[in-house]
Amino acid sequence: MQLIQENPDLSAYLQADEVIDHEHPVVRDTAARLAKDATDSYGYARAAYEYVRDTIPHSQDSGDLRVTWRASDVLTQRTGICYAKAHALAALLRAEDIPTALCYQRLADDDGAGHVVHGLVAVRFHGAWHRQDPRGNKPGVDARFSLDGERLAWVPDPRSGEADYPELYAAPHPDVLDALRTAQDRPHLWRTLPTALGAEG
User: Fold this and answer.
1) Going from the N-terminus, what domains does the chain have, and what CATH number goes with each?
2) Pick from 10, 19, 85, 107: most CB atoms within 10 A?
């Protein structure tokens, strides 16, 4: 699949905003700690990925009812669903001048009754984009940081209506952000998650 930049200006994928707030002190401090032990940009990107994947529990896995969406809040409260963890990783990577995009998949819902949009990031190295999934591993899920072939949590099955969205967004998709910001708690969020993006919705 060919990944498509929503914004042709690569600098858009380094910007800070209300969600990917990499100028916030908690993001800067976390990035500085991770960078201290990294020997190059690749090493830093891998360390940041593993930090978000492994030390910030996915709120569904942990049973946490809180809903986070701003990167600094994800890092402070140490909880979030896939979108929120993607925002946190994007902020940590952009804090060290690594272009990072948000991207999405459409996957079958856990109960098999429908679909849900899943959030990822893509990092820019060696002139190409590489998708990464920081949602957190669990039995049956073994995602890893990789620039040599994708190691994502899930591979969509088109026969089940699943799909990869090729667009690379500089900011969270509005449908995703709206669901996060209006959710009273995670059970409420689970009822309002987008089932598709764009015309499929």
Assistant:
1) 4-200 (3.10.620.30)
2) 85
pLDDT digits (tens, 9 = 90+) for 143-172: 999 999 999 999 999 999 999 999 999 999
The residue type of 145 is F
In the block, which residue shows the tokens 């042709």? 8
- With both helix axes pointing from N to C terminus, report the angle between 41-55 and 82-95 in degrees, rounded to the nearest 10: 150
Measured between alpha carbons, how far is 187 from 135 in angstroms, rounded to an integer?
18
- The torsion of the CA quartet 193, 78, 15, 130, rounded to 10 degrees, works out to -70
**DSSP, res 70:** S
The pTM (predicted TM-score) of the whole model is: 0.96
CB atoms within 10 A of CB 110: 10
- Contacting residues for 188 by C-beta, under 8 A, at least 6 apart: none
Which three-class secondary structure string do you get for 155-181? CCCHHHCCEECCEEECCCCHHHHHHHH
